């Protein structure tokens, strides 16, 4: 656990100093204090969980958000996280709506009380818990000022049961399709349960409390939350975000990644051709940057198609042109050729809050 935290702190200081002039793409923010999410914890409180188990979950949740994450709403700080709480057994209960906890103190007080005892039944239908979480997001987040916040469900389950039409998998699929990330934590019967829950979880987000120490589980959940915050980033040139610009290709890997994305995007077809952010300005090839930021002079690796660049002074824009199985840069006169644009924005993460 110490190691994980040290790495996080190190990264925070690196990010604060990020400059594109370093010719490396901006790494993602990993500052837990700036987490901005809407999270619902969905906790199995059937008999199988045991009182000790519930207690452990309460302290796990309190710890996950206890590293400075701002809980609740704050009119002058958009990077906050709301936390709701649902318990389930044969039925689901809303223990805290998304606006109840307005500080980490509220979480500490509320969560240990809400998770102080099990319900005397062996029935435990995750489907009921997921369904209630879905309803809470619809009622308390969608159509609100928080609509664009990444939504995350954290499931803590001691067993996996289905009953008739109550199929947790199809509800989980519906949630994931609407953009919600699901983290699952298996309590007890580790392997079989974790396997069942892995169909519920988003990729890489199926965790277990047995595999590691409690401290390790806390860090694993925190990493998943940071990743969820970052995944909400989309490669787009939205006008609403002034930090976006045409894509840079600082490395072969990025060049290949963009080509890969283009091939997977409807609206593009072979032979693939698309603009990137390389321009000839005042005798120099530079990568454009968002308004107000210094342009970045071109460095190796160069990905020019053979014969390029030609007559830079009149052909000052650059697009990627498919050539065989790859693409390469070809310089063209600005606006002479209609082609798609590949834009990028600093991804929305804990360093970079993105408005609606
Ligand atoms: C709200 O955010 C501002 C700016 O980050 C901070 O100074 C203030 O203490 C916050 N208010 C509360 C109640 O947390
Ligand atoms: C653009 O990014 C900078 C640095 O990350 C940040 O300070 C600024 O608020 C961002 N602007 C917008 C509109 O997102
Ligand atoms: C593109 O699609 C292929 C095949 O579906 C997939 O393996 C690959 O990860 C996708 N690439 C990107 C960048 O989405």
UniProtKB/TrEMBL annotation:
Gene Ontology process terms (BP): innate immune response
Record has Signal as a keyword: yes
SMART domains documented for this protein: CLECT, VWA
Source organism superkingdom: Eukaryota
Signal peptide: 1-16
Pfam families found in the cross-reference section: VWA
Keyword Signal: yes
Residue span(s) of domain C-type lectin: 229-344
InterPro entries in the record: C-type_lectin-like, C-type_lectin-like/link_sf, CTDL_fold, VWF_A, vWFA_dom_sf
Keywords attached to this entry: Signal
Domain VWFA residue range list: 38-235
Identification of the protein by name: VWFA domain-containing protein
Organism: Caenorhabditis remanei
Taxonomic placement: Eukaryota, Metazoa, Ecdysozoa, Nematoda, Chromadorea
């Amino acid at each position: 656990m110490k190691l994980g935290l040290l790495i996080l702190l190190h990264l925070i200081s690196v990010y604060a100093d990020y400059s594109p002039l370093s010719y490396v793409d901006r790494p993602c923010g990993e500052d837990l204090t700036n987490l901005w999410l809407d999270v619902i914890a969905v906790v199995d409180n059937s008999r199988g969980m045991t009182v000790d188990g519930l207690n452990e979950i309460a302290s796990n949740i309190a710890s996950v958000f206890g590293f400075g994450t701002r809980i609740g709403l704050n009119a002058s700080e958009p990077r906050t996280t709301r936390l709701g709480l649902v318990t389930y057994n044969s039925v689901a209960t809303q223990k805290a709506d998304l606006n109840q906890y307005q500080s980490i103190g509220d979480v500490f007080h509320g969560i240990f009380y809400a998770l102080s005892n099990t319900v005397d039944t062996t029935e435990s239908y995750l489907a009921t818990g997921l369904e209630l979480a879905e309803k809470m997001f619809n009622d308390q987040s969608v159509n609100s000022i928080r609509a664009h916040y990444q939504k995350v469900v954290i499931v803590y389950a001691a067993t996996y049961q289905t009953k008739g039409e109550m199929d947790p998998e199809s509800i989980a699929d519906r949630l994931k399709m609407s953009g919600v990330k699901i983290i699952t934590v298996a309590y007890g019967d580790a392997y079989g349960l974790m396997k069942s829950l892995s169909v519920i979880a988003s990729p890489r987000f199926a965790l277990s409390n047995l595999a590691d120490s409690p401290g390790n589980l806390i860090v694993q959940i925190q990493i998943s939350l940071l990743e969820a915050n970052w995944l909400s980033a989309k490669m787009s040139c939205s006008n609403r975000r002034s930090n976006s610009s045409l894509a840079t290709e600082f490395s072969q890997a990025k060049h290949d990644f963009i080509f890969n994305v283009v091939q997977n995007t409807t609206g593009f077809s072979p032979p693939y051709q698309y603009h990137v952010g390389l321009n000839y300005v005042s005798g120099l090839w530079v990568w454009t940057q968002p308004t107000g930021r210094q342009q970045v002079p071109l460095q190796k690796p160069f990905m020019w198609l053979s014969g390029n660049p030609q007559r830079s002074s009149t052909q000052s824009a650059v697009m990627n042109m498919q050539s065989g199985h790859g693409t390469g840069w070809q310089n063209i006169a600005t606006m002479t050729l209609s082609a798609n644009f590949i834009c990028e924005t600093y991804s929305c993460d804990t360093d970079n809050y993105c408005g609606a």
